[in-house]
Amino acid sequence: MAEPIEKEISVPSPGKAAIPVLLTSPPKGVKHSGFALLLGPGAGGDEKTALLTAVANEVARQGHFCARYRAKVPNLGFRVSVCTRVMEHLFHPIKGIHPQKGCFLGGHSMGTRVAGTVAAQLAGGTAESESVPVKKTPATKGKKAAAPAKKAAASSTTTSNGSDFPTDFVPGLVLYSYPLHTADNTKALRDQILLDIPSTTATLFVSGLKDNMCQPSIFAKVYKEMKSTPREVVQVTDADHGLGFGSSKPGQAKKEALAEAISEWTVAFMDEAIAQKSGEENGSGKKKAATGEMIKKKAELKKEADEWTVAISTIA
Question: How many CB atoms are closer than 10 A to CB 309?
Answer without folding.
Answer: 13
